[in-house]
Amino acid sequence: MSGYPIDRIVVTExxxxxxxxxxxxxxxxxxxxxxxxxxxxDGLAMSPDPVARGKRTLVLAKNRGRFIRKCPGTxxxxxxxxxxxxxxxGCAIDCSYCVLQGxxxxxxxxxxxxxxxxxxxxxxxxxxxEGPIRLGTGELSDSLMFDHxxxxxxxxxxxxxxxxxxxxxxxxxxxxxxSILNNEPMENIVIAWSLNAPAIADGEEKGAxxxxxxxxxxxxxxxxxxxxxxxxxxxxxxxxxxxGYRQTAAMLADKxxxxxxxxxxxxxLRFHPSMKNVIRRRFGPDGILKGEFxxxxxxxxxxxxxxxxxxxxxxxxxLHEALPGAPLYLCMEGAEMWRSVFGALxxxxxxxxxxxxx
Length: 358
Known about the structure:
Elements: E1 8-11, H1 19-27, E2 32-35, H2 50-54, E3 57-61, E4 68-70, E5 82-85, E6 88-89, E7 94-95, H3 100-103, E8 109-112, H4 115-128, E9 133-136, H5 147-150, H6 152-161, E10 166-172, H7 178-181, E11 189-194, H8 198-204, E12 205-206, H9 211-223, E13 227-235, H10 241-255, E14 261-268, E15 270-271, H11 275-283, E16 294-295, E17 301-302, H12 305-322, E18 328-330, H13 335-342, H14 351-354
């Protein structure tokens, strides 16, 4: 079970009566506890690595904006109709390719405490939407990074249990699933893991548990009756990449029942041009930056299309063999790539994948 250190807990006025605060104080008893005013002039922005330092500060505050938003996608790319819950911003895990390094202006980990507002907003979205809503909490954070300390999954499960039209995905690079497994399995909950080749996980995903531990956790979840999903995103070209992804696929074949896999996404490494300097400064010029990238119409640096196509075709074949029947889809790719890899757009594919894009 993975744990992450917190040196400072910032408590806003609204968080003073939150049960999450009491759990945080118990989880990190040696952390400095300060008020919101202490963030002003604390020197975080001037530290040698504000991102790394910010990962050791937890801010408990009210979310004053919207909790739920539809994934904006990108014009010209195929969207999978995913909805995002912004319950937390910032992540304790430090992946070299993480877009949050450049996307979030506040480097601290922020956790919303006004859970009642989230429930009200969810009910409003359900009232305005026909059919199911596929929600995830892992867009701006790791869904389970603090779960054995703060028990956020139990709060989310209780919320979703009463709303069967919501399908909630909890996405993680940890093995923190004990709190979830203490509950009876729910048909509208999916526990998901971000996976990669072992060399990328070991070298580029600081603080994440190994691929073996992630798949072992998935196996435990399946054995306990839960549905699971996997995200191979970002696929990274590196020395021995085919053997590396084959190793991960083999572990999945050995440990996971494909009948319990709800979906698998494939996405190739991509990042905004401004991220290149951030990655180089924090992680050096080697690693993921050694590939050749092109600036694409979505203003992202990506591998050229033939390279992406080979990545997708190769890993798709491995996963079809390892987990036969499990629905696969592409993340943040256009119609041309869909037709090249799958021979069709998602609306014309078998029901398993098509239902995600309905």
